[in-house]
Automatic annotation (TrEMBL):
GO terms for molecular function: pectinesterase activity. The keyword Nucleotide-binding does not apply. The active site is at residue 69. This is Pectinesterase. PROSITE patterns: PECTINESTERASE_2. It is found in: Secreted, Cell wall. It comes from the Eukaryota. Keywords: Aspartyl esterase, Cell wall, Hydrolase, Secreted.
């Protein structure tokens, strides 16, 4: 599905690209619009499930399934209370591939989300190594905060993209929990940060997507600031 019109909203819907995992890129939703909301929706594919290309996008209580770069693009998107599920057959699963090319206002923020393996492969979850993201473009911006990171999230946390420098990206974590949340052995990149509470506030609904301005009229519940 392709979303081009601003102020689009979806509730309790499933979006699936049923292409086989061997077919490569298989986008389930491409959102190239502003002020869009997805509430309790499911996004299912393998590679490149969700393509965020627009601005001021809000995903609340959604389930997102994939293998490689399955939340990607140059969009400005906030994910709150979402489940991010890595699937087989990919052994190295990269959640995000954000593609900011310059210092513009775009990026992905994940708040109070769960990053783990897809429930149907729980019995063989040890086969899946999860990385929070890799930089598709040099200014890639992704934040995970106040989220549960399962033990499949690898100690280094993040992965290189061949040929893309890591000096200007902004990858950050704040107050995450779970066995994969320990940042002691995270990548030693100039662009990776364990941020404090004050900076984390910049990536909330209120400040990151200006949500208190436009979300109330959607009647979708949201938390405007930090959870704690």
């Amino acid at each position: 599905m392709v979303v081009k019109g601003n102020n689009f909203m979806a509730q309790h819907l499933s979006f699936e690209n049923s292409a086989d995992h061997q077919d490569g890129q298989a986008v389930a939703v491409l959102d190239d619009a502003k002020y869009t909301v997805y509430y309790k929706c499911r996004f299912l594919s393998f590679q490149d499930t969700l393509y965020s290309k627009g601005e001021y996008q809000f995903f609340k209580g959604c389930d997102i399934y994939g293998t490689v770069d399955f939340i990607f693009g140059n969009g400005l998107a906030m994910f709150q209370d979402c489940n991010v599920y890595a699937r087989l057959p990919s052994n190295d699963s990269t959640v995000t591939a954000q593609s900011k090319k310059q210092w513009t206002q775009s990026g992905f923020s994940f708040q109070n989300c769960t990053v783990t393996v897809s429930p149907e492969i729980a019995s063989c979850k040890a086969l899946v190594k999860i990385y929070l993201g890799r930089p598709w473009k040099p200014y890639s911006t992704v934040v995970f905060m106040e989220s549960f990171l399962d033990d499949n999230v690898q100690p280094q946390g993040w992965m290189l993209w061949p040929g893309v420098p890591v000096n200007n990206l902004f990858y950050a974590e704040y107050n995450n929990r779970g066995p994969g949340a320990n940042t002691t052995h995270r990548v030693n990149w100039p662009g990776f940060h364990v941020i404090d509470r004050q900076l984390a506030k910049s990536f909330t609904v209120e400040n990151f997507i200006n949500g208190t301005y436009w979300l109330p009229e959607t009647n979708v519940p949201y938390t405007s600031g930090l959870y704690s």
